Structures are given as structure tokens and as C-alpha cells.
């Protein structure tokens, strides 16, 4: 990976959709990104450059009918543009599993863990707006305790990785805010916000096969994982001004930051920090002395699922 142009606009596609006539507004929100790409690629090469869009949890939460209206509009925008649109599936709704695995691939590719020489891979916990993902390589013994079909095999660069992955739809930060408000909300007190945040995780939900993370979902114990744990997306966005230069912070320090900030923070920021701590400590059962690598970039490249999606396409 020699170079990248990483740009984003907020809100995403789903954030512009309130009623059917907003499809054009959602599609038009991509035009600034398209213009950036056009400026970056020489004119005589544009027809050889494939273009794709993989929509994530925000669009999944809109439902099939509404999301397809937007995707159809995006296909037309891309087809009328200067780049090469490989096929209809190049613009599609990505499943939570793919989003999780692509994020894991991005981080481990940038850490040089996916080469021919066998290395300990890193775990990833990715906090989006609509969903939150966890992916790691727990080992065959840990995976054998789970339900049938719980292991995901990922093949890349001639190697096969046996992974645990799960995307918790509805537990991204923006959706968590709604759940917290519905559960009664909380003021600028960490203890109160932490209690409500833990409650929406449904840690005590019926769990057919133990151990479980939250909402009744089986998961091998992340606390016993011997590799590094990388946290990104909203983990970075909400912790940016509290992180050391190397991005390493313990779970306990995340709690300390929340406790210290809540009395003076904006109301939503206190809820967000309490929720992030609740997910890693209660949801994933990580002890306070666990080190998290909270990074926006690795070797100058964004820690986002997009690179993983490109790598998969190239490898195939």
C-alpha cells in the first residue's frame, strides 16, 4: 500500500433519507467525493478505474425497499460518471459480516500480519454509527466450544484464517444513543450513564451457548486472546483528545477519561464515553488493565473497512 486518498462526508447516505423524495438528496451527497476522485485520477485513466460503493449499517437499518431506492440512484450517478462501473453488484448493501472482516483485514494488512510468514494477528473492535463489530483469531480450541458454524474462514494471500466475527446491528454509537434515551437517559453523571449503558447491552439475555458477549450472542473470551486489540472509528473520534501519541490506552484509562469528562462534557459526550466503556468492559469482558490500540491510521493509512474490501477484490 503506497498511497491513498481518504475522504468522507457526514452524515452518510441514510442520514439524508427522511422520505422517498430525499433519494436525490442522499445520492447528491456523494458528489463531493466523486469530484475528489475525478481530480485525483488522470483523465486518460478514468475509464480503466473501477468504482464501487458498499453501504453499511445505516442503510441496512432503513430496510430493503428504502435502501434499494438509494442504491439505484447511486448506480445511475456512477454509470453516468467517468469511472468504470464493473456491474450492478459494485453498488450494494454490505452485510455486517463483510464489514467486520474487511476491517480486520485492513488492520492486519497494515501491521504486516497477513504475509506468508505466520504471525499473531490482532483483534479489532470497530464502533460505527449503526453497528459495532468484533473480529479476532481465538484459536481452534476456543472456537470448538461454540455453536456449529460459528467459525468464519477467510482466505487471503494463500492462507486460511479461522476467525470469530460478529456485527451487532443496532449497537453502533448513534443507535446506542437512541436506546439510552428510550431507557430513561441520564444526566452528566458517569455512574448513572454507565448503569443505563450497561442495561441496553442486555448482558443477562438468555445465552444458549456460553460464554456470551452481549444481547445473547456467543463469543470466545476476548480477554484470553494473546494478540493486540485495535479499536477504531468512534472509539478514536470520541477519545482523540485524550489519547497519548502512540494511541495506546488501557480500558481503565478509558473509564477515567469518562469519569473526568462527564461533569464538564456536553450531555451526549458523557453518554458516548460511558457507552464505549460499557461495550469493552461489560460487553466484551475486557479487564481494566487491557491495552487498546486506538488508532485512526496505521503507517499513514486509515483503519477503515474500505482497504480490506479492496484487498479482497484484488485477491480474487
Q: Short summary of the structure?
A:
This protein has 316 residues and is α/β, with parallel strands linked by helices. The chain has 12 helices and 11 strands.
Description:
This protein is of the alpha/beta class. It has two domains: 13-94, Nucleotidyltransferase, domain 5 (2-Layer Sandwich), CATH 3.30.420.40; 98-298, 2-Layer Sandwich (Nucleotidyltransferase, domain 5). It is built from twelve helices and eleven strands. The protein has helices at 23-28, 31-40, 57-62, 64-79, 96-110, 140-143, 173-182, 190-200, 234-239, 251-261, 267-283, 305-315; strands at residues 53-55, 91-93, 123-127, 131-136, 152-156, 159-169, 229-233, 248-250, 291-294, 297-298, 301-302. The strands form three sheets. A seven-stranded mixed beta sheet has the order 5-6-4-3-7-9-8. A two-stranded parallel sheet has the order 1-2. A hairpin with a 2-residue loop joins β10 (297-298) and β11. α7 (173-182) crosses α11, α8 (190-200) packs across α11 and α10 (251-261) packs antiparallel against α11. The protein is globular and about 55 Å long.
